[in-house]
Please model this.
Amino acid sequence: MRQLKKKYWMPVLVVLALVCSGALAAGYVGEPGADGSPGAGSSSDAASSSGASSLGAEQGSASAGSPSAGASAGADASAGADPGGGADASQPAVEPGTALEALEGLPVKGRAPKTGYDRKEQFGSGWKDPDRNGCDARNDVLQRDLAEAVLDGPCTVRSGVLADPYTGQRIDFVRGPSTSQAVQIDHVVALSDAWQKGAQTLTRERRVEFANDPLNLLAVDGPTNNRKGDGDAATWLPPSKSFRCDYVARQVSVKAAYGLWVTQPEKDAIARVLAQCPDQPALAPGAAIG
Model:
């Protein structure tokens, strides 16, 4: 009986062993390998993991390159900025016929030595009559610039009222030994300044013309004129700021007319004034105040 049972159990045990073996094999396929790599059945997970790794690599690359990206973005932003917002925007446009245009046409050089300068020798003594109207340049300018002028004869100005362009004050002019100097005739471009900036190359006749040219002459407050001395725009400007545009425009016009130059500090000072009045016209010979 026992032998019979053993005879039937053996096939049953074999079948059970086969079934168990298949089940174990099926469970092994999807497990990770010993090194942690996915099993053969995890292709979709592997693809997902691979994609994540690739994305991470790209993000890392982008992060590592972010300074370049930022620089590129900055460059693009700069390229797209309003061109009027740069440093050149502070420079006014140069219109034809303006003092700014005349200024741009002047040579820029250093100041030459004052060697050989003698006012009377180089520019003539006394006032001349450049327009040959019978009146000297001083009286011509007084008649031009003073209001209520009273004349002695056809030329000599005995009295008048000056609205001084340099100070903005009213000055009552009366000719006389102790009063005439209250109103002086200023060379807007000082003779010494002209000598050191190109007038040395002019003929004496041309320099005498320069010293008596109404374009370069203004009736002004005497003490203020004394304080100016032979200064250029880099060292002296009229106390009245409202007249500075007219003043530097006259200086530029005179220097352009006589082929004189400016120094770089002088040009910069004039440009700063004209930046406030870019349409200020250059002046023609004989131009009156303002």
About this structure: DSSP finds eleven helices and five strands in the chain.
